[in-house]
Write a structure and sequence with these properties.
CATH architecture: 2-Layer Sandwich
Shape: elongated
Distance between the termini: 74 Å
CATH class: Alpha Beta
Biased composition (Basic residues): 99-115, 123-136
Radius of gyration: 27 Å
Number of domains: 1
Largest sheet: 3 strands, antiparallel
Strand content: 5-15%
Domain Prokaryotic-type class I peptide chain release factors: 5-135
Number of helices: 4
InterPro entries: Pep_chain_release_fac_I (IPR000352)
Number of strands: 3
Protein name: Aminoacyl-tRNA hydrolase
Order of helices and strands: EHEHEHH
Helix content: 40-55%
Enzyme class: hydrolase
Length: 136
């Protein structure tokens, strides 16, 4: 699933605009251009496994009660660009959460591989033992 295929219900989102930091001069100082996007995870209507993966991927962006994910976009000068960036990040994260990880297939080291490893260790040890002081 690609980020373009993700549909996000508007009632699951809550946007607030804050004063941004960093470069941008008077525009940054006067206008609240940074976008803080709060997403209600339960209102997204996702499968419980996808919700768990989404919370895991979000990491520190998840609130303490694990109900919301917060995105803050402040790299652009305009509100609209920051709003689009926050929504794009959300869509990308949801698309990543839809990808189910492959289960690890257990493998074993063969007996011959173990023997080769032990032999190489013995040879290395013998070589190092010969580096000692010479006895007359």
């Amino acid at each position: 699933m690609s980020p373009e295929d993700v549909t996000i219900p508007e009632d699951a989102l809550e946007e607030t605009f804050l004063a941004a930091t960093g470069p941008g001069g008077q525009n940054v100082n006067k206008n609240a251009t940074a976008c803080q996007l709060r997403v209600d995870v339960a209102a997204l209507g996702l499968h419980p496994r996808v919700v768990n993966r989404l919370r895991h991927i979000a990491g520190s962006k998840v609130t303490k009660d694990r109900r919301e994910i917060i995105f803050t976009a402040r790299s652009h000068r305009s509100r609209e660009a920051n709003r689009e960036e926050a929504r794009a990040r959300l869509a990308e994260m949801i698309a990543k959460a839809h990808v189910q990880p492959k289960k690890r297939k257990k493998t074993r080291v063969s007996r011959s591989q173990k023997a080769k490893r032990v032999d190489s260790k013995v040879k290395r040890g013998q070589k190092k033992a010969l580096r000692g002081k010479v006895k007359y």
